């Protein structure tokens, strides 16, 4: 009887043990899973092989931002020259804002292509842009290497300023004259390249003046530009326009030439006393010839005294003696256009009614 009862009891106990074992195994497995998940939240994930350490990430971001800022600065300087901003900083303003203006004495240079209108008529728009960019590219270095900066491009013309922040007024004038001579040298090389490529040569005229200007910003709230204004800018622009009239490469005012104070370096000769458009006072103008071959320089300098004497007679309205001086000057240098121009001017003045207070200058 006891044996019959104990046998089922053993089966029940065995079944109970098996169930407990399964439950304990399930609970242990669940506990292990939860523990692993918790540890994975605390422990950082493995980093990629090519990923840099944490301490290097801020440095990398800073370098990227610095490179981006430098690129933006270089781009900005293509539109607003650094020297222009430096002028404001020199006068105590570190912010380029609308309406700000400062005054300074600078040398102003204008450079223009002769006969550009006729030249451009034979080009397509794409050819014209390629030509201008090629030309400007070659004219850029002579200006920047001599301490100047290009204020603006006006069609085919270049307006450049020379301020020499660490120098004096003499340095400014010298920089502009040196740039003019280097521009002529760059043009010679450029024309050789054009001839080798089957294109015609081009000629340029250069005008230089020294004097006070106002540098400032103009425009509106959403469109601002830098500008340089003043009587000195007008004079430099008008002098450049006189270059083809007097058949000269470089026309410079007496103020700029005297300010440079190096006549042996910047060989020049007197051209005329003129009144340019927009001015009532006369301007003494000279031709810089230092870039020309020695024999041509000597030829142009051979009649300087006669030209000056002829102009003196012209001031006194002594037309016969003035023309006589210019004719002698033409005999000394038959290929020189200047004496013939003065003869034509005297003949025209002699046949025209002149004001009582006429000062001997030519209105151009």
From TrEMBL:
Query: Which EC number(s) are documented for this chain?
Result: 4.6.1.1
Which SUPFAM superfamilies would you find in this protein's record? Nucleotide cyclase, TPR-like
Keyword entries, A-Z: Lyase, Membrane, TPR repeat, Transmembrane, Transmembrane helix
At the top level of its lineage, which domain of life is listed?
Answer: Bacteria
Guanylate cyclase domain location: 107-240
Q: Which regions span the lipid bilayer? A: 6-28
**PROSITE patterns reported in the protein's UniProt record:** GUANYLATE_CYCLASE_2, TPR
Q: Name one GO biological process term.
A: intracellular signal transduction
Q: What is this protein called?
A: Adenylate cyclase
Q: What is the lineage of its organism?
A: Bacteria, Pseudomonadati, Pseudomonadota, Gammaproteobacteria, Alteromonadales
């Amino acid at each position: 009887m006891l044996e019959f009862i104990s046998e089922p009891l053993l089966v029940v106990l065995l079944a109970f043990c098996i169930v407990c074992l399964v439950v304990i195994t399930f609970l242990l497995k669940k506990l292990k899973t939860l523990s692993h998940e918790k540890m994975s939240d605390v422990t950082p994930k493995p980093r990629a092989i090519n990923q840099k350490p944490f301490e290097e990430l801020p440095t990398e971001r800073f370098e990227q931002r610095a490179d981006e800022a430098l690129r933006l600065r270089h781009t900005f300087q293509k539109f607003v020259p650094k020297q222009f901003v430096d002028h404001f900083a020199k006068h105590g303003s570190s912010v380029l804002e609308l309406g700000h203006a400062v005054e300074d004495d600078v040398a102003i240079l204008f450079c223009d292509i002769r006969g550009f209108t006729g030249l451009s008529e034979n080009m397509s728009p794409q050819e014209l842009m390629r030509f201008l960019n090629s030309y400007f590219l070659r004219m850029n270095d002579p200006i920047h290497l001599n301490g100047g900066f290009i204020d603006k491009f006006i069609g085919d013309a270049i307006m450049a300023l020379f301020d020499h922040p660490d120098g004096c007024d003499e340095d400014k004038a010298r920089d502009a004259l040196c740039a003019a001579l280097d521009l002529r040298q760059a043009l010679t090389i450029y024309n050789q390249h054009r001839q080798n490529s089957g294109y015609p040569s081009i000629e340029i005229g250069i005008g230089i003046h020294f004097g006070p200007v106002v540098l400032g910003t103009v425009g509106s709230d959403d469109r601002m530009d830098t500008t340089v204004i003043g009587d000195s800018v007008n004079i430099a622009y008008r002098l450049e326009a006189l270059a083809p009239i007097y058949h000269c490469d470089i026309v410079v005012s007496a103020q700029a030439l005297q300010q440079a104070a190096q006549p042996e370096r910047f060989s020049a000769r007197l051209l005329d006393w003129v009144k340019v458009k927009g001015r009532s006072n006369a301007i003494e103008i000279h031709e810089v010839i230092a870039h020309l071959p020695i024999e041509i320089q000597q030829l142009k300098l051979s009649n300087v005294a006669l030209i000056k004497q002829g102009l003196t007679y012209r001031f006194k309205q002594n037309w016969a003696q003035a023309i006589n001086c210019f004719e002698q000057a033409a005999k000394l240098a038959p290929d020189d256009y200047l004496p013939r121009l003065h003869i034509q001017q005297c003949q025209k003045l002699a046949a025209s009614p002149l004001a009582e207070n006429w000062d001997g200058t030519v209105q151009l």
